[in-house]
Amino acid sequence: MRLAVVSDAWRPQVNGVVHTIAKVTGILAERGHRVEVFGPERFSTIPCPTYPEIRLVVGAKTGLRRFLAEFQPDAMHIVTEGPLGWAARRICLERGWPFTTSYHTRFPEYVHARAHVPLSWTYALLRRFHAPASGMLVVTESIRAELQRRGFRNIKPWSRGIEIDKFGIRSEAQDLDPRPIWLYAGRVAVEKNIEAFLALDLPGTKWVVGGGPQLAPLRRRYPAVRFFGSVEHRELAFRYAQADCFVFPSRTDTFGNVMVEALASGLPVAAYPVPGPIDVITHPVLGRLDEDLRAACLAAVSLPDPAARRAYAATTYTWQGCADQFLANLAPMPNRQPEDLGVAGLQATRGG
How large is the average pLDDT for residues 33-39? Predict the structure, then answer.
């Protein structure tokens, strides 16, 4: 199979979307498929307003049409609703190509947090974007239900994975900082609601791992917090392993890969009872959800059995299973059959 994946989020960006696409396309390539990711690095770009680390493609359609004509894909997947995503959608509609899309980001909530655009306006735009797709892939049941209430249709499940061997449970305490150590890892941006965590009156020490547009102002505002910025994976795994509780203050994520990474490290999770956390923290041993985030933190940090949390992450979230779901939901081009995509044995996994 020749699979074209079009995404406005791609390397060198570091986020859950990029990590997911990289893992899944890598697995498919290992299985013998030819996969091309068409990201912003192939085009002229400008910095995204309020988030210059993200580059937006300018004049995507002409170049993308040429790339796709040369590649001749057997299936198309559009990852994002940005300039590249819209260009790919227009090309598919012009040529009568079926395509799938995915919903990784609660974009309306992000836009509302940054620019106060009414949610109804942005959701209407997203409904238009995803409506022609053969399938719209979403990561959790709660997001699926929410989107269905908002008028989205043809939604398909697409879970996530964890590289369990890259994370380890702390075997012995080290006197790094006063305990307990409360950890947040992820983008440091307004939509992540990090100040809801940083402002909490908690004993011990708060750690923040990750970069983003809010890093500098938050460092100034919270001098007692240790900010590590963007780090390599080895240091990230070390920070997980040395922490006592993972705090996930976001109310706008569709999933939250970092929660699964925390569980793989044996950490309990404290979060709000919103989509994402309610889909991941499904058993009492995994963490606590509460509208009072401080109460969730204080209840979660004392939870026993880190080995049970690691085992849950290892058995529930696998990248091979994630790749299987993705492959099963692809739509073949005209004159191609599902077996041409290498998914004949996977069709039973399709969701309605």
Answer: 97
